[in-house]
C-alpha cells in the first residue's frame, strides 16, 4: 500500500485549501526519517507529517500535535528550522502523474522548497534553495546512482518522467481494445497490465477497475471484456480527472486494509472520510515520538509476560517428568512380580502384595479379576512401554519449549525497540499467531497496516542490512543475504541479525567492529558497556525447525567485543 499519483493530487488540493498562506511555527524531528511541521493558518494550527521512510513513506495532516521522537535533532531538522521556521507556505504543487509533492515557502528574501518523494524503496525528503539541494534525508551518491545524485550543494534533478503511457482519465474504447490485443503473455493478469500502460495507476486502482469490469481481480488480461474494462475505467477514473475526490478507507475486523480517493468495492468495509489525510492516518495510525508508544506497548508486554509464564510452567513440568521415573519403575516391577507369582494367584484375585527387593517395602499391585495373570502382567508392561516412549520424547519437547521461551525474549526485544505502530503490530501479530493475544479491534487498529523494512545502511560502498525485529531478521538472513556475506549477532541475547554484504572486496576489521556495535545496540544488551558479538558467514546460519521467525543456530563464529552504538556512527547514514 502506497501513496499513488491521484492521492498526491488530492493532497495538493487539501493543502492548498488548508495550509497555503499559513506560517510555519515549528519543525519537529518526529523520527529518523520523518519531519513534522506546525503550520498556523486561518486561526488554526495544523500538523503536517512528511516521512521518507523507505518502507512506508507518506505525507499527510495528522489530527494531534506532533511530538519529537529523537533524543538529538537530525541534520535535516536543524536545517529546516534554520531555513523555513517562521516562513510562509505560498504554494503546493505536483508534477503531472508523478508521486512527488512540492511545498514552496517564502522566508524573508529566500524562496525555499520542500520536496517529498513518497515512493517505497526510493523515498526521499529534500530541502531545496534556488534549485540546489541544501540536504536530504537519504543521500544518494555516485556509487548508487550515477545519473541522479542527491547530495548537498548539487542541483536537484527530479526522477525521469514517465513516457509512452495512456491518459487513464479519457481512454477510448479503441485504445482499450488495442491495449488488450497487444498482450502476448497468457498468464499476465489485468491488474498487472494496467499500471504498465496507464499513467498514475497503482496496483490498488488496477484491482478496483478490474473488479468492477469482471468481478474477479485475478482475471487474465486476455480474458477481460474490452467494453466492460472501458466502462469501469470511466466510472472510477473520470471523477479523478475532474479532481472529484471521494476519500476513505476500507476496514475489516478492526484492521484498516487500504485508503484511496475513490470508493473501493472489491474490499469490504468501505468508510468515507472528510479528507484524504484522515484516511491515511487511519491506515498508518497516529504519528508520534517513541515516548508516546509506551502506553500502547503495555498490553503487548503483558501478553509476552503471560507467554513466558505459560512456557516456563510447561518447561518445569517436562523437566520434572524427565527426572521422576518412579512411576515407570512401579509399572515394570508390577509386571515382573505378577509373572513371578502367577502360579500362586487365585482366580478372581484383585490385588497382589509382594516385595521386589528384600530391603524395600512390598508393592501393592492392582489386578483385573477378569484377566489371566499373564494378561495382567502384559497390561502393566504395555503401560510401562508407553510411558518409556513418552519419556524418550521429553528431551525434544523440552528443547521446543526452550525455543518458545527464547522467542518470547526476542519478541520482548522487538517490542522494546519498536519505534512506530507497524513495528508494534509485528509483535502483536506474532503473539496472536501463538494464541497469546486476543484479536481486540482497538489493539489491531493501532498497528495501521503498514509493514516496516529492515534498515539498509551504506558505508564506503559496503551495504549493511539490520533487522530490527524477528520478522525483519528472517528477511535479512534468508532473503537479503548471500551465503558468503558476514552475519553478526549479539551473543546470548535476543537482538538484530546484521549482515555485511560481501561484494568481493576485503571487509576491513574496522568496519566489522562498527557494524558489531550496531548489532549490540539493536539487542537486549544495548545498555551494557561491553557486548560480545558473534561474527560468521551466512552459510553457517540455519533456521531452527518449528521455531519462530528469525530463530537460528550458527557455527564457525568468531567474536568481537564492542560498545553498543546506533547507525549514526556512519556519516553516510541509513538508506
From TrEMBL:
GO annotation (BP), single: rescue of stalled ribosome
GO CC field: RQC complex
Domain NFACT RNA-binding, chain residue ranges per copy: 458-551
GO molecular function, one term: ribosomal large subunit binding
Name of the protein: NFACT family protein
Amino acid at each position: 500500500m502506497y501513496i499513488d499519483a491521484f492521492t498526491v493530487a488530492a493532497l495538493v488540493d487539501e493543502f492548498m485549501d488548508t495550509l497555503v498562506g499559513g506560517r510555519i511555527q515549528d519543525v519537529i524531528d518526529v523520527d529518523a526519517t520523518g519531519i513534522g511541521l506546525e503550520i498556523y493558518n486561518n486561526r488554526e494550527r495544523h500538523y503536517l507529517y512528511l516521512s521518507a521512510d523507505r518502507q512506508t513513506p507518506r505525507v499527510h495532516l495528522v489530527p494531534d500535535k506532533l511530538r519529537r521522537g529523537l533524543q538529538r535533532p537530525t541534520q535535516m531538522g536543524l536545517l529546516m528550522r534554520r531555513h523555513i521556521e517562521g516562513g510562509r507556505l505560498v504554494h503546493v504543487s505536483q508534477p503531472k502523474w508523478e508521486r512527488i509533492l512540492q511545498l514552496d515557502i517564502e522566508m524573508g528574501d529566500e524562496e525555499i522548497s520542500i520536496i517529498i518523494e513518497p515512493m517505497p524503496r526510493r523515498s526521499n525528503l529534500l530541502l531545496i534553495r534556488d534549485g540546489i539541494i541544501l540536504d536530504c534525508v537519504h543521500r544518494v551518491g555516485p556509487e548508487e546512482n550515477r545519473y541522479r545524485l542527491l547530495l548537498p550543494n548539487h542541483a536537484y534533478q527530479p526522477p525521469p518522467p514517465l513516457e509512452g503511457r495512456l491518459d487513464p482519465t479519457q481512454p477510448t474504447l479503441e485504445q482499450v481494445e488495442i491495449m488488450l490485443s497487444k498482450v502476448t503473455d497468457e498468464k499476465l493478469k489485468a491488474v498487472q497490465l494496467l499500471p504498465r500502460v496507464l499513467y498514475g495507476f497503482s496496483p490498488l486502482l488496477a484491482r478496483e477497475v478490474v473488479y468492477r469490469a469482471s468481478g474477479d481481480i485475478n482475471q487474465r488480461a486476455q480474458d477481460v471484456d474490452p467494453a466492460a474494462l472501458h466502462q469501469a475505467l470511466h466510472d472510477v477514473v473520470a471523477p479523478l480527472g475532474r479532481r472529484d475526490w471521494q476519500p476513505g478507507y476500507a476496514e475489516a475486523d478492526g484492521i484498516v486494509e487500504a485508503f484511496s480517493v475513490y470508493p473501493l468495492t472489491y474490499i469490504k468495509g468501505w468508510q468515507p472520510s472528510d479528507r484524504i489525510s484522515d484516511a491515511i492516518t487511519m491506515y498508518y495510525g497516529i504519528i508520534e515520538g517513541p515516548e508516546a508508544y509506551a502506553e500502547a506497548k503495555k498490553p503487548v508486554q503483558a501478553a509476552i509476560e503471560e507467554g513466558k509464564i505459560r512456557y516456563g510452567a510447561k518447561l518445569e513440568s517436562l523437566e520434572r517428568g524427565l527426572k521422576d521415573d518412579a512411576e515407570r519403575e512401579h509399572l515394570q516391577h508390577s509386571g515382573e512380580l505378577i509373572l513371578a507369582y502367577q502360579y500362586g494367584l487365585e482366580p478372581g484375585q484383585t490385588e497382589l502384595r509382594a516385595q521386589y527387593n528384600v530391603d524395600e517395602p512390598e508393592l501393592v499391585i492392582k489386578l483385573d479379576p477378569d484377566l489371566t495373570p499373564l494378561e495382567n502382567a502384559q497390561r502393566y508392561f504395555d503401560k510401562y512401554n508407553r510411558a518409556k516412549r513418552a519419556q524418550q520424547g521429553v528431551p525434544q519437547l523440552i528443547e521446543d519449549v526452550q525455543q518458545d521461551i527464547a522467542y518470547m525474549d526476542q519478541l520482548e526485544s522487538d517490542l522494546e525497540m519498536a519505534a512506530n505502530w507497524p513495528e508494534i503490530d509485528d509483535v502483536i501479530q506474532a503473539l496472536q499467531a501463538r494464541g497469546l493475544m486476543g484479536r481486540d479491534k482497538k489493539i489491531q487498529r493501532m498497528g495501521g497496516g503498514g509493514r516496516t523494512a529492515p534498515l539498509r545502511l551504506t558505508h564506503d560502498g559496503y551495504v549493511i542490512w539490520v533487522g530490527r525485529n524477528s520478522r525483519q531478521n528472517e528477511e535479512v538472513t534468508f532473503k537479503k543475504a548471500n551465503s558468503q556475506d558476514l552475519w553478526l549477532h549479539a551473543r546470548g541475547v535476543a537482538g538484530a541479525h546484521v549482515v555485511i554484504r560481501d561484494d568481493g572486496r576485503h571487509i576491513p576489521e574496522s568496519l566489522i567492529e562498527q557494524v558489531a556495535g550496531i548489532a549490540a545496540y539493536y539487542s537486549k544488551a544495548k545498555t551494557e558497556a561491553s557486548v560480545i558479538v558473534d561474527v560468521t558467514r551466512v552459510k553457517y546460519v540455519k533456521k531452527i525447525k518449528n521455531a519462530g521467525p528469525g530463530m537460528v543456530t550458527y557455527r564457525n563464529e568468531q567474536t568481537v567485543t564492542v560498545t553498543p552504538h546506533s547507525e549514526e556512527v556512519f556519516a553516510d547514514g541509513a538508506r
